C-alpha cells in the first residue's frame, strides 16, 4: 500500500469542484512521512487506521511460499484538541458531561457526537436508551467499546446528562470524585475522532485503488500480482475500471489453485486463480462478508463458508452463513 499522500495522489474521478475542495483541505493538513505525529492542524494517516494490510489476516500457501494479503488505501485525518484538565468547583452536570465527553468519548464518537470511522453516532441515542441503560452500557462496554471502568458514578451521570439531554440532571451540581494522581487524567490532548478524508461524494480523497488483494513470494519478496478488490457499481457504469473498496476480512487459499475472499464493501464473494490473480467467479452475498472464509470437508465433499454480517461502511446488516460447493458429478 502507498505510504504517503501528496497533491498528485488526489482523486481525479470526481467533478472539478470536488477536486478543488479536497486539494484545499489537503493544503491545511500535515502530510508526508508515514509516521508524522498527530497535530492540531490535522495529520493525514495513510494508508489509514485500517490499512494497508487488513486485520482479517493473510492466507499462506505452504507448498509455494506465497502469501495473499488484502489491503486498504484509505486516508484518514487525525486532529488533536486541548483537554481542559481543570475541574471547576461550581460545575453542573451538563458542563462536566461536556468536558468528560471530550476526554473520554470524542476520539471514537466525534466532536459533534456524529460518529467517526466505524463508531456509531450518539445523536438521538436518548430515543434508544434511558439513563440506567446508558450507564450500564458505559460500565460494561459493548462490541468495540471497552468498559469505561475509570469513570465514577457521578461522572457517568454527568456524561449521561449531556449525551441523553437529560434536562432534569443537567442543572444539578457535579460532585467530582476524589482520586489519586493518575497520568490518564493529565493527558493534555484528545482527538476529534476517526475521520476519513473523503470527497463530497463520499469517495476516498486519494486516487484508486482503494482496496487490493496481492500475492507475494515470501522466498524472494517478489510481488507476483495485485488486483483491485471490490467496485462501486455507479463508477463501473461510467466505464471506470474497478477501483477497489475498503475491505474488512481475510482470504482462504486451497491446494486446488483457488483463492477465495469476500471482505469488500460491494458485498461480493470472489474466487481468483491463485497463480496469476485472474478472477474466476464471483457472486453477490445477502450482506457483505466482512469476515474470513473457512474451508471444510463433510462426507467427502469440500465446502467454503463465509459469514455475512455486513453493517460496516453503511452497508446492510445480515445474519447468514453462506456455504458453497461444486455440484456433484453425474
Query: Given the structure, what is the number of helices?
Result: 7
Major pleated sheet:
5 strands, antiparallel
For this structure, what is the CATH class of the largest domain? Mainly Beta
Output the structural class: alpha+beta
Which stretches are low in confidence, meaning pLDDT under 50 for 5 or more residues running? none
How many structural domains does the protein architecture include? Answer: 2
Portion of residues in beta strands equals 15-25%
Mean pLDDT: 92
How far is the first residue's CA from the last residue's CA?
46 Å
Backbone shape: globular
Order of helices and strands: HEEEEEEHHHHHEEEEHEEEEEEE
The name of the CATH architecture of the largest domain is: Beta Barrel
CATH topology-level name of the largest domain: Lipocalin
What's the quick description here?
The chain has 330 residues and is of the alpha+beta class. It has helices at residues 16-28, 93-104, 106-109, 131-140, 153-163, 167-170, 233-236; strands at 43-45, 52-53, 59-61, 66-72, 76-78, 80-82, 189-191, 195-196, 211-217, 223-228, 251-253, 258-261, 268-273, 279-284, 294-298, 301-310, 317-324.
Features:
330 residues; alpha+beta; Lipocalin; Cytochrome Bc1 Complex, Chain D, domain 2; 4-stranded antiparallel β-sheet; 17 strands
Explain this structure.
This protein is α+β, with helices and mostly antiparallel strands and 330 residues long. It has two domains: 7-78 and 197-324, Lipocalin (Beta Barrel), CATH 2.40.128.630; 80-192, Cytochrome Bc1 Complex, Chain D, domain 2 (Orthogonal Bundle), CATH 1.10.760. It contains seven helices and 17 strands. It has helices at residues 16-28, 93-104, 106-109, 131-140, 153-163, 167-170, 233-236; strands at residues 43-45, 52-53, 59-61, 66-72, 76-78, 80-82, 189-191, 195-196, 211-217, 223-228, 251-253, 258-261, 268-273, 279-284, 294-298, 301-310, 317-324. Strands 2, 3, 4, 9 and 10 form a five-stranded antiparallel β-sheet that branches. A four-stranded antiparallel β-sheet has the order 11-12-13-14, with no helix packed on it. A three-stranded antiparallel β-sheet has the order 1-5-8, with no helix packed on it. Strand 15 and strand 16 form a beta hairpin. It is globular.
Amino acid at each position: 500500500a502507498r505510504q504517503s499522500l501528496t497533491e498528485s495522489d488526489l482523486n481525479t474521478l470526481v467533478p472539478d469542484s470536488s477536486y478543488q475542495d479536497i486539494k484545499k483541505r489537503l493544503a491545511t493538513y500535515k502530510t508526508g512521512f508515514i509516521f508524522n505525529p498527530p497535530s492540531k492542524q490535522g495529520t493525514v494517516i495513510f494508508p489509514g487506521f485500517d490499512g494497508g494490510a487488513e486485520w482479517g489476516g493473510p492466507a499462506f500457501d505452504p507448498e509455494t511460499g506465497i502469501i495473499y494479503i488484502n489491503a486498504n488505501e484509505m486516508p484518514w485525518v487525525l486532529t488533536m484538541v486541548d483537554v481542559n484538565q481543570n475541574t471547576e468547583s461550581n460545575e453542573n452536570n451538563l458542563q462536566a458531561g461536556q468536558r468528560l465527553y471530550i476526554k473520554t468519548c470524542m476520539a471514537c464518537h466525534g466532536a459533534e457526537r456524529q460518529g467517526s470511522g466505524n463508531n456509531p453516532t450518539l445523536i438521538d441515542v436518548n430515543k434508544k436508551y434511558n439513563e440506567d441503560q446508558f450507564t450500564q452500557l458505559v460500565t460494561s462496554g459493548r462490541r468495540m467499546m471497552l468498559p469505561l471502568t475509570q469513570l465514577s458514578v457521578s461522572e457517568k451521570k454527568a456524561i449521561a446528562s449531556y449525551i441523553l439531554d437529560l434536562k432534569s440532571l443537567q442543572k444539578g451540581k457535579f460532585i467530582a470524585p476524589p482520586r489519586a494522581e493518575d497520568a490518564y487524567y493529565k493527558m493534555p490532548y484528545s482527538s476529534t475522532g476517526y475521520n476519513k478524508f473523503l470527497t463530497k461524494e463520499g469517495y476516498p480523497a486519494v486516487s484508486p485503488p482503494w482496496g487490493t488483494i496481492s500475492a507475494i513470494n515470501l522466498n524472494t519478496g517478489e510481488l507476483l500480482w495485485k488486483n483491485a478488490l471490490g467496485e462501486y457499481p455507479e463508477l463501473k457504469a461510467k466505464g471506470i475500471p474497478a477501483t477497489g473498496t475498503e475491505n474488512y476480512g481475510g482470504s482462504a487459499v486451497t491446494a486446488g489453485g483457488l483463492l477465495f475472499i469476500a471482505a469488500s464493501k460491494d458485498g461480493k464473494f470472489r474466487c481468483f486463480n491463485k497463480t496469476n490473480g485472474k478472477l474466476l467467479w464471483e457472486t453477490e452475498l445477502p450482506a457483505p462478508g466482512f469476515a474470513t472464509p473457512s474451508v471444510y470437508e463433510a462426507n467427502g465433499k469440500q465446502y467454503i463458508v463465509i459469514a455475512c454480517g455486513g453493517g460496516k461502511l453503511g452497508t446492510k446488516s445480515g445474519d447468514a452463513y453462506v456455504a458453497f460447493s461444486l455440484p456433484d458429478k453425474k
